[in-house]
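Below is how a single chain appears once it has passed through the pipeline. First comes the sequence as given, then the structure the pipeline wrote out for it. We keep one example in the README because the format questions we get most often are answered faster by looking than by reading.
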Amino acid sequence: MPRWKALPEGLDPEVSEFTSQLRGLVDRSGLSIAAVSDRTGYSKTSWERYLNGRLLAPKGAIVALADVTGTHQGHLTTMWELAERAWSRSEMRHDMTMEAIRISQARSALGEFSQNPVGGSGRPGGSGRPGGSAGTGAPGGSGGRPAGATVDFGVMRGPGAPSVPQQRGPGGPPRPGGPSPAGPPPAGGRKRGRRRMTIFVAGVVGAALVTAAAVLLTDIGGDGGEQTVAESPSPSPSSSAPVLPAGVKCGGDACTGKDPEEMGCGGEFVETVASATVGTALIEVRYSKTCSAAWARITQAAVGDEVRITAGGETSGQTGEVETATNAYTPMVASPDSAGAKACATLASGETGCTPVR
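Resulting structure:
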């Protein structure tokens, strides 16, 4: 059975080449993945991800592997930088592809609305009779009014008086609206008014439907159920978050509960600030000033041993348990400095102990 699994399909060639180089270094060293984990301080699970192309190793892990295998650190980090840029390009292409899919979905859905316009009269030319204007009820005019007659709507006769249409004959003074001396208003005028009102209402309803569809598609068109979140105001220059080094993915509170290796907080960005021996196990407080976070590590341990990290006087913290190897580490807790960070161990034998608080 081969030692290594086939690399994922579609992996960038530069990332694939770099991963193969890491495999070669491990093969030539004669070390197992568990041994590489023990000597570099990165978990076995993380190294399996790195060496199988599922995750790009952080720079700290590469530096540690170079020390363990006796490899020139500068050459290996140069190759890592090329792979890191290729990995970033692949993520960018993936993001652009997903964005194109969302745009295509939105255009397709909006196209269905544009193929069914609302507000039309349903008859050629928008008129009620072939060859005539809508509601033509009398020769030479519309709606039964004499040719040249106009209607003045909304003229107020006094305070609080209702708007009454006025009919104005050709060249004559306005007359109060209402039935003409010849009788009630022609039916053509009423039909035309109802038709205009129907068209207006249909147009309003259609516009509301298009707006609602656009909002709905914006909310649900994202990948994986992503929801649109209101953009928060831009922070002032004095409160802007510090720029993190390449490979470091979190800082401060954002690191709490996260894996320090996967977030890039280990390697050259971490130091041991306190340690203690509990039974045969060694516990350490690991602190990254770059990430403003601390975590605990236990080595020379046995299966079932636990280690816990607390910081800043908080009683709650993060816990790690030794499951198969002889070491383990906890997720991170945010801490502005290393003072107050404490690691405690509870061994499977029942023995307990903690590091001194600085």
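Residues 119-172, 176-183, 221-239 have pLDDT under 50 and may be disordered.

See the next section for the split statistics.
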